[in-house]
From TrEMBL:
Keywords: Sigma factor, Transcription, Transcription regulation. Residues 21-87 form the RNA polymerase sigma-70 region domain. Belongs to the sigma-70 factor family. ECF subfamily. The keyword Transcription regulation applies. Residues 120-166 form the RNA polymerase sigma factor 70 region 4 type domain. This is Sigma-70 family RNA polymerase sigma factor. It comes from Steroidobacter gossypii. It holds the Pfam family Sigma70_r2.
Amino acid sequence: MTDSVLARVAQGDARAVHECIDQFGSLIWSIARRLTRTRADAEDAVQEIFTDVWRSAGRFDPAQGSEKVFVATIARRRLIDRMRRASHQARTESTDDIDSLGWADPGNSAEVCAEASAAARAVMQLRPEQRQVLELGILQGLSHSEIADVLQMPLGTVKTMMRRGLIQVREIMGVQNAASDGVR
């Protein structure tokens, strides 16, 4: 067997497709799980990635790198595209209506709801890019690195904006500064 798995996939070899899944399935799954929020999202992403791998198999050039790097690059690009689409959809939703943000849970006690509403109003006073970083991190549960990928910002910038945004929210709400109460 002199041809690579990807070369045989490009030639339409059905057995090579199964070999491709066996050889790269765990790699693609691990990348997808790290860069998606839920298992279902990862499963959808893996299907899309394998479809892209099979479509792109003819472009694989062993002189440019290994099959593993080729497949990992396709996986990473597809996942970044998915994150950008999700970010774009999130940005198109209105952030003007505080109730739609979901900061306050109506099922909680009145005091907790009042505090959550006050926090939401404080967040709305932040610069738009700071507000977006906080919303992606707090409401959508994205990690700093995921936020950096989605917003195409350096990781350090995201971390700084998150920290400064939280400090500003505390100041607006009149809550003691995080540094003075031992939280960093």
